[in-house]
């Protein structure tokens, strides 16, 4: 399956989960129009106390559907149904067919395939740039008890060596993204592994 977009979601308020929508509009260097995490500086509530406010490297949150399949293996049918709802973990874009976690800092994801019904500037190819991985937060356990640990990879000494809760990106070029659009991956010259942001 070529890399593609399965779902897009947004929320104007700081709820944990986001709502499924037919399309999202990305705004260059800002984020998703109308989303509570859009802005030049960080908008996540856990970081609003930092002064001066840091640059917003978390404008767009993406999760591969393959990760959701991986972490859901021991969940009940009801828990799986909740987990697979678009935007359940606060992600804006659920992808299929691309291992986002293996990509490096600065990798561009270009969303291709003209969105149906859009013309002019809004039909331009939207581009996001990967900045890091999402650090699983306690809110995941409030969504489903014990789920946070399933998004962590630990070594034999119980030290965290990997995080599976998706990737964070900034918007390099605005545009419209809809489910069904393709994703073209453009890697930087040097590979720098994604760390938590």
TrEMBL record:
<feature type="domain" description="MOSC">
    <location>
        <begin position="19"/>
        <end position="186"/>
    </location>
</feature>
<dbReference type="InterPro" id="IPR052716">
    <property type="entry name" value="MOSC_domain"/>
</dbReference>
<protein>
    <submittedName>
        <fullName>Pyruvate kinase-like protein</fullName>
    </submittedName>
</protein>
<dbReference type="InterPro" id="IPR005302">
    <property type="entry name" value="MoCF_Sase_C"/>
</dbReference>
<dbReference type="Pfam" id="PF03473">
    <property type="entry name" value="MOSC"/>
</dbReference>
<dbReference type="InterPro" id="IPR011037">
    <property type="entry name" value="Pyrv_Knase-like_insert_dom_sf"/>
</dbReference>
């Amino acid at each position: 399956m070529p890399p593609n977009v399965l779902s897009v979601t947004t929320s104007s308020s700081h709820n944990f989960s986001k709502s499924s929508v037919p399309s999202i509009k990305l705004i260059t260097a800002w984020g998703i129009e109308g989303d509570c995490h859009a802005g030049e500086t960080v908008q996540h509530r856990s970081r609003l106390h930092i002064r001066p406010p840091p640059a917003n490297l978390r404008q767009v949150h993406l999760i591969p559907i393959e990760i959701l399949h991986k972490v859901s293996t021991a969940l009940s049918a009801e828990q799986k149904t909740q987990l697979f709802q678009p935007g359940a973990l606060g992600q804006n874009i659920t992808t299929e067919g691309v291992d986002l976690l293996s990509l490096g800092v600065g990798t561009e994801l270009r969303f291709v395939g003209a969105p149906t019904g859009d013309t002019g500037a809004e039909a331009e190819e939207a581009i996001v740039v990967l900045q890091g991985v999402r650090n699983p937060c306690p809110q995941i356990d409030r969504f489903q008890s014990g789920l946070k640990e399933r998004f962590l990879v630990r070594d034999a000494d119980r030290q965290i060596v990997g995080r599976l809760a998706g990737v964070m990106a900034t918007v390099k070029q605005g545009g419209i993204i809809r489910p069904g659009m393709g994703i073209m991956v453009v890697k930087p010259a040097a590979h720098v592994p994604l760390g938590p942001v």
